[in-house]
């Protein structure tokens, strides 16, 4: 039986395919479109993945949606209890549009309704960690921003079935509170790790009294926003908490970009971290009393809080605490697929698979390594023993990129897409920071031989996914300061031969040369980028950064004297390849000056492209070059006029492209109406280049909420894969 799990839209888009209960792939869209946390409604990654495994969409038995439209009325009822009647109408209309959109995306992709299974969001989270875990009896805790009508789920997995013990209703959300503080600190979605790291420098008590007036926590870890117990106008989304609630509570406005981080910022971060630890620990102890299980499984975005996870391991009373490596919403794809298989598709089949490693992403494209080497004018030496050669390079104090096999799922680099270094080399932390360009307060992490973990850390157990901290032994805190935090902890990954044979060998070879069975390990990516996906991206990072060397497969690159450097590391450099290399009209619209470089890249990539510059003479002069006119002034955007002159049109839009599906006013905006007219009447494709650098094919987005999709002359990006049964 083949089951497809999907997180089909907005942030953390992901697709997971399982056959007979075992994964074939788990593809996070961010790795493909280079937009971190991937706000995407593009299904092409899914269909490309199916094609890799020679599976037709018609072969897929079940398709899961990680948001259940059937929970819509419950969410409306909850909101009506804390939003005043004069404000609730617009919010209800938004929910009527928003929540079913996930399901409609799958329908628009060609999947018939009778194959789509809607599963509650947190049940997907819970299932992902239970059905991938080794224990048939486990307590399960899932906490994030929100699902449909709940923000947390406490459950008991036993004998292949999941019993829900308790949920936390919307709007009371630990995830939104933590994200709200992150926003108040001046950072964006998905940057909660910065808040967690900063918290170690603060006093958790200084602002605790103020935060206690906002959130109440009982002895069993159930919590509630106190102001939400009476009607008002606040929806308690993370943006409102960060921009409105917190400034009122702590008496300091939202931190602006570039503003110095003050002690107040540190102390508020420490206070919300302490609240997170208190809630999670009380909930874990409640689960221990209720289930009697020896194992606690963690999922949901808050499950990535490695400091809290370390406290749970030490103080919750469970023998084992396991945090899912893909705890974010991306994990609901695999979780949904596993739930559907074990409860709907094959409920009588015993579980025979559990996760022993996190390498379910796409394999590195070694077949393209020679071409990428020529592109960047670097030459790598083929090695007969790449682990030994890399260990020698690391022992000499060099910073090395390490690219092997299939990529890790989740946000942590676990030895297949890593930057590695000798953790005791003098000045190594500053040197790696020169590569990563990270904030000074954020620590790096160690990867350690499983047999040696108790030598350096105050634990003796498996921590395979780098999702929990452990205390560094006192005698090693100074030598291993490069991988330790100010509080004396480190986010540890234990490595075994079974989980990653080559990375294990590398650590062994490094130990032979240095006596040290631990390496500094951080993710192989540029600042703000996801983990590298291809040889081209890996070499681009190598030549444009301070990496001393990079290993790709069995090739070691150490010399970039004559390398081609300087290419901008932004998503649109990669994504404009989705645009057709034909007569293309580019309409910049509200393109900010800081992103005008996008137009130069399009012009370089496609000599037939023309940019509509209107009255912007400076832009016209910049784009035109070498005697070839690359601009047009005031183009008439009527389909009849466009059709003879152009083969495609691309509009820049000043927002993430997924909003055209998830926000009604954009779906029916004048630009959306014009885009449909061009596609239908001119018979040519329309693309939206969005504010995050992605390129969206609007044939696949602007008809999601229509009853029927017109029979357009232009094919869908993935329609060629869809072969419905007769």
Concise description?
This protein is of the alpha/beta class.
Written description of the protein model:
It is a single chain. The protein contains 26 helices and 28 strands. It is of the alpha/beta class. The strands form six sheets. The chain has an eight-stranded mixed beta sheet, with helices on both faces. A six-stranded mixed beta sheet has the order 25-24-23-26-27-28. Helix 8 crosses helix 11 (263-291), helix 14 runs parallel beside helix 19 (535-544) and helix 23 packs across helix 26. The mean pLDDT is 94.
Which percent band covers the strand fraction?
15-25%
Shape descriptor: globular
Integer average pLDDT = 94
Radius of gyration: 26 Å
What is the strand tally? 28
Task: Specify the number of helices.
Answer: 26
Oligomer: single chain
Provide the structure class.
alpha/beta
Widest sheet: strand ordering: 13-22-21-14-15-20-16-19
Main β sheet profile? 8 strands, mixed
Q: What are the low-pLDDT stretches, counting only 5+ consecutive residues below 50?
A: none
Q: First CA to last CA: what distance?
A: 20 Å
The amount of helix comes to 25-40%
Main attributes of the structure:
35% helix, single chain, 26 helices, 6-stranded mixed β-sheet, 8-stranded mixed β-sheet
How is the secondary structure organized here?
Layout: E1 2-7, E2 14-19, E3 22-28, H1 30-33, H2 44-52, E4 62-65, H3 72-82, H4 85-98, H5 101-108, E5 116-118, H6 121-130, E6 137-143, E7 150-158, E8 161-169, H7 174-184, H8 192-199, H9 208-212, E9 215-217, E10 223-225, H10 238-250, H11 263-291, E11 295-299, H12 306-315, E12 320-323, H13 331-345, H14 369-376, E13 381-382, H15 386-395, E14 400-403, E15 417-421, H16 428-436, E16 445-449, H17 453-456, E17 469-471, E18 489-491, E19 493-495, H18 501-514, E20 518-523, H19 535-544, E21 549-552, E22 555-557, H20 571-575, E23 584-587, H21 597-605, E24 610-612, H22 617-623, E25 631-632, H23 639-645, E26 648-652, H24 659-662, H25 664-667, H26 670-682, E27 686-689, E28 695-697
Parallel strand pairs: 1-4, 4-5, 6-11, 11-12, 14-21, 16-19, 23-24, 23-26, 24-25, 26-27
Antiparallel strand pairs: 1-2, 2-3, 6-7, 7-8, 9-10, 13-22, 14-15, 15-20, 16-20, 17-18, 21-22, 27-28
Helix pairs in contact: 3-4, 6-13, 7-10, 7-11, 8-11, 11-12, 14-19, 15-18, 23-26
